[in-house]
Amino acid sequence: MKVYTREIVLSTNKKFQLIDITYEVEKIVEDSGVKNGMVLVFAPHATAAIIANEHESGLMEDIITKIKELTEPGSSKWKHNLIDDNAHAHIGSALIGADRVFPVINGRLVRGTWQNIFLVEMDGPRSRRHVIVTVIGE
Amino acid sequence: MKVYTREIVLSTNKKFQLIDITYEVEKIVEDSGVKNGMVLVFAPHATAAIIANEHESGLMEDIITKIKELTEPGSSKWKHNLIDDNAHAHIGSALIGADRVFPVINGRLVRGTWQNIFLVEMDGPRSRRHVIVTVIGE
Amino acid sequence: MKVYTREIVLSTNKKFQLIDITYEVEKIVEDSGVKNGMVLVFAPHATAAIIANEHESGLMEDIITKIKELTEPGSSKWKHNLIDDNAHAHIGSALIGADRVFPVINGRLVRGTWQNIFLVEMDGPRSRRHVIVTVIGE
After folding, report:
1. What pLDDT, on a 0 to 100 scale, did the predictor assign at position A66?
2. Nearest chain C Cα distance for residue B109, angstroms
3. Which residues from C are below 8 Å from B96, CB to CB?
């Protein structure tokens, strides 16, 4: 059995942004030497999330629009905004989740044709966002 | 250590539909020979999702009602609808997630009494939807 | 390879409540002896969820406020409420998810500074809620 972990470090330049990390995750799976198993893509952040979906610019805007509607940035109803003006990002991260898991078959990460992997920035810009990729299998 | 993967192939016959795959997933866990570990239930689709909840027809309708309210099928505000009229399904898949992970104990998938496993179709009907089930453990 | 599973049993005393289980999960990871791998935190309940986010009382209230808005407790539009008055909790559990996965590196669960782990009670109070923690790795 093998366990292989590597970190992706990236920066974001907008308050809301989807950063495509598919290539980096696939490279880590390849480098891991794991033939069959699973891979965890995890963001150690309470104001970001991980999702899988299509890399189409209109849709990427739609996803951000929906996250804003769902989480209401700047709303005076959020008590956390009295401390730090990012309650929306915390709520988005909690509900969407900062972890996604994919199968690994024959040395490759399995995903649908339209499933690219994204870090969802909801409280940017940030100079250092991390994604931890853990591959486990044989 | 064992890794065992098998695919469930199914068709859907409505635009929105919950397909119960609990039995199939449990059978794969049983066939895997894994005694203790975990099982990943993964849909390689950007317009579907995987959830765990109660198989009660009223509730299954409620879940679909809520997904429609949350993702607004056909809305002119979705930019992706200029390309393909299914932005709602992409947004639902991204936010809900196409992966769910369950523990395996003593050779059985562990789930609550009311936690059946469903593929959530949001852009049907489709003649071929896939669910990849990966069991890992000892 | 090691697989180590333990159960946390807890009670809730409100209808909606976030119960911080970070310490218990970290202790299980430590006790597992797994140095590198991943850990699954899973609630075998269709009316609860698992999330990771900041333990700040205002934010914890905000998350509950958002879950109520999203799932509409007591709404007459939910068909499941004719059977059992908790459709909202089922919908919340289905959409948010009852599973979260974290990396394990050098014998420790990896999480962000502001990522505490919570059971989300949406249909309490309950005398016995369970969380199953499965650590897998080497």
Report:
1. 98
2. 11
3. 94-95, 97
Q: Do A51 and B97 touch (CB under 8 A)?
A: yes
Under DSSP, the state recorded for C81 is: G
With a cut of 90, say whether residue A137 has pLDDT above it: yes
- CA A18 → CA A47, A64, B59, C76, distances in Å? 13, 8, 33, 37
Other residues' Cβ atoms within 10 Å of the Cβ of residue C114: 18
pLDDT tens across A78-101, in order? 999 999 999 999 999 999 999 999
State residue A1's pLDDT score.
Answer: 86
Q: Which two tokens stand for residue B10?
A: 């199914």
Domain chopping of chain C, boundaries: 2-137
- Which of A7, A8, A87 shows the shortest CA–CA distance to A47? A87
Beta-carbon count within 10 A of C30 CB: 14
CB contact under 8 A, C3 and B59: no
Question: Using CA atoms, how far apart are residues A96 and A49, in angstroms rounded to an integer?
Answer: 6
Q: How far is CA B88 from its chain centroid?
A: 16
Sheet of strand A17-20: strand arrangement: A17-20, A116-121, A48-53
A53/B87 Cβ within 8 A? no
Query: Domain A2-137 falls in which CATH fold?
Result: Jelly Rolls (2.60.120)
Neighboring chain B residues of A113 at a CB cutoff of 8 Å: 46
Instruction: Show the low-confidence residues of chain B (pLDDT under 70).
Output: none
Rounded mean pLDDT, C63-88: 97
Verify whether the Cβ–Cβ distance B53 to C46 is below 8 Å: yes
Least CB–CB distance from B91: residue in A63, A111, A114: A63
**3-state DSSP assignment of residue C64:** helix
Tokens found for residue B59 = 């509730």
pLDDT at A111 over 90: yes
- In this complex, which chains have at least 3 CB pairs below 8 Å with chain C? A, B
Please enumerate in sequence order all residues whose Cβ is within 8 A of that of B111, keeping only pairs 6 or more positions apart, or say none.
B22, B52, B102, B117, C44
